Amino acid sequence: MNRLIPALVSTLALLTPTAFASAPITLTIASVAPKDSPWEALLAKFKEAVEKKSNGEIKVKLMVGGVLGDENETVTKAARGQIQAVGASTGAFASKVPELNLVELPFLFRTVEEADTILDEVLTEPMEALFKKRGLVFGFWNENGYRMFASREKPILKMADLAGMKMRTQENPVHIAMYKAFGASASPIPVTEVSQALATGNVDGFDQALLFMIAAGWHKAVKHVTLSEHIYQPAAIVFHRPWFEKLKPEYQKLLLEEGRALQKKGRKAVRGIQGELKDILSYEKISIHELSPAARKEFENASQAVYLTFRKQFGPEAARLLDLTQATLKKIRKE
Fold this sequence. Notes:
Elements: H1 4-14, H2 17-20, E1 25-31, H3 38-53, E2 58-63, H4 71-80, E3 85-89, H5 90-93, H6 112-133, E4 136-151, E5 166-169, H7 173-182, E6 185-188, H8 194-199, E7 205-209, H9 210-215, E8 224-240, H10 241-245, H11 249-261, H12 263-271, H13 274-283, E9 287-289, H14 293-313, H15 315-333
Parallel strand pairs: 1-2, 1-3, 5-6, 5-7, 8-9
Antiparallel strand pairs: 3-8, 4-7, 4-8
Helix pairs in contact: 3-11, 6-15, 7-14, 14-15
């Protein structure tokens, strides 16, 4: 036994504090955001800041381009703890947090400034509580932008133009109800399958933000884009709650603060290239159309049926948040 003591002492001497350091914390963030897009750039800045300020204790893995599945799949994986975080549209998160369907209501916001005020000053706090109830932690908002109509053959200039058209829609009940109210046939298709549906002619068109439709290449399958701005759709980065709550308090704070510090930069980056995106459409010989005031009013009137459906389908808290949102918008507009 005595012979073993010197060897044991020598071994222990080799075990520096580094040897006892815990393994880095892995933070995998999944997103369908295409590579080389502003979304990926924003997440890359988040990764850089988090890894630097945690002294490398948190290692961030960005899995973009839908490599871990479509939006609904990755949101479900985050809820189950199969991944630590997900960046997705609010339409996808609404599958877990139904009250978030509020943001998806057509013609809710007239300007991006209105949207920013409602998201930051009205909805962030209640959404934090609602996400926690569903096993998730709301991190921060990201930018997707206004959704526009795009069509393969005929332009969409008024509501009657949608009659009989089969439109790809996000797998979201508010989006489906919207197309029903507008007289179109809604075809819910995951993001990862849209290009094939367009190529085969299984759908006549879709609606999506300019940045995403161009980054994903969907615009190449259509002849017309209408700048309808019918849904302002943000995105968000959300964490798996049990994983998040096991982190040191200072790391929980780090993830939230670094993300929210990037909100304005993300919005500015996407909004700042809208002119360039329209130029790309024009270069690709895609006709760009505007809705007339009369056509916009017709769509807005038809949207009221979707608001009624929302109030009935998603419960009293959703209705309360809609009332609060509409009251705040009236003050902003001085109506």
